[in-house]
Amino acid sequence: MFPVLPSPSPSTVPAIRPHRVCELRAAGVRFAAHRVLDGIDLVVGPADRLAIIGDNGAGKSTLLELLAGTLAPTAGEARLHLPGGVAHALQNPEFPPGATVSAAIDDLLGDLRALERELARAYDQLASALPAEQAQRLAAVSDLQDRFETRAGYDVDHRIDVALDQLGVGTLDRTRPVAALSGGERARLALAVALSSRAELLLLDEPTNDLDEHALAWVEERIAAHRGALVVVTHDRDFLDRFATAVVHVSDGGIRRYGDGYPGFLRARETERRRLAERHEAWKAEVARTEELLATNAFRLDAIPRKLELDGFGHGAFRARSRDHGAVGRIRMAKERLSRLREDPAPPPPEPLRFVLPDGPAPDADSSGEDDALVTLHDVVFQEPGRRLTVTAWTVAPGDRWLVTGPNGAGKTTLLDLLAGELSAASGSIDRRPGLRVARLRQDVGAAARGSAVEVFARRAAVPPSDARAALLAHGLFREDEIERPARALSVGQRRRLDLAVALASTFDVLLLDEPTNHLDPELVEQLERALDDHPAAVVTVSHDRRWLRRARQHGAAAVRVTEGAAVVAS
């Protein structure tokens, strides 16, 4: 390590802190024929806390890369002023082939390691400097050392060790090939280094994914202590609520920035929805008024006879022709007005998410007798290589709300498979009401079926093809130009929305939701929660989403805890 020199004088250290650390002006990114971002204007200040939200595939991670300077815009410009460095924790980090964990850490520390090497060279030059050069060399060393100490560079490796331990990967062998780590381990490695770097700008991509409560609390504590700028991509609504001072929404290749944090974003979006509805109603009223004007003048024109006997030297014919001419003019203007209105319609806002309700009277949700059970599990044992699950007794009745919790790999999804009838028990009994209808939103978005998005939707939701287009567009989950795309060409986020659209259009008695907040932007999750509030079906949810769990418990949801191969139903 290097000796610690006295603090440099103010004349040798830049005293002016920039008012912005990143600035994008009309920036665009295009990969071949695919436009990801277009015409982006964004300024990040030195104390900003920005959250980036939007659908998967919308360009959120690409936006982070622009801000990090690791991706150059194909249009416009990106201006970065980051003397204090940048730390970028990707969700799926990549490293040079053959890199060890230790080399990956050096790669992630990038600018700090470069500063360390530069400081070492400066010391070497100071040691060999001629007397006339020593003052200049000393000033250079002092400046570099000040920058290095500002980042607490001397202790960074110790901080990384602590961070890895807090994130549950403290036992990683530094000589191990980083390619041998799981995706989750690589993501936590990148997060640990970023949070330890003391960089001026912190860029985080889904930092709360797959963290247990202890690790999550530690990460939020470190972020709260960060004194520079923060830009984070996240779907975690609790995280948004706590840290975001502004929200940047990415959609259709563009962005829109909303102030007042996450609550301000929700209020602004609701205001936008109301304004869209008002414009649509005004447009409909104008179309109706113009059509009425057209019909009235057409009736008047038809009432004027084409031939008249001349009287009074032809004055009657002149008056008739005058009325005829006025009606024709009004009809022409009304037709032109109607054509303009229809060429430039004011579309209605997307409908809030709403599930199809079953036909007939709703079952008595307050009754808990055996006759009202939808599914009953009794002394169930499921076993196959690598998986085992036991359930002593569990009854799911109409209107029930159940939360299934437990560590990863404990068997939560297996429990949903048993409820859905997709797996059979080795022993015990699973009784289902005859004709039971089950809908499911799965955790993993699998390979899409053949056909366009609207064709797949029509088949899976049993919607007549003539109604499928309107039904798929109704909730704003897709744009018109997206529903004709091959389903296999849809992004993960789009396929997730297609799964959600199928569930919305299906009639069910039991709805199984496996991590329903995955791949959906927070605004849709808020709508999904409200859509389920008064639905008469039973809803069983597996989720790690803190806000979803808290809200469900406040609305009376009961718990099933799955741990060590056993599902324990709360009494």
Automatic annotation (TrEMBL):
Keywords: ATP-binding, Nucleotide-binding, Repeat. InterPro entries: AAA+_ATPase, ABC_transporter-like_ATP-bd, ABC_transporter-like_CS, ABCF, P-loop_NTPase. Residues 16-277, 375-570 form the ABC transporter domain. Pfam families: ABC_tran (PF00005). One of its GO terms (molecular function) is ATP binding. SMART domains: AAA. PROSITE patterns: ABC_TRANSPORTER_1 (PS00211), ABC_TRANSPORTER_2 (PS50893). It comes from the Bacteria. PANTHER family: ATP-BINDING CASSETTE SUB-FAMILY F MEMBER 1, ATP-BINDING TRANSPORT PROTEIN-RELATED. This is ATP-binding cassette domain-containing protein. It comes from Microbacterium sufflavum.
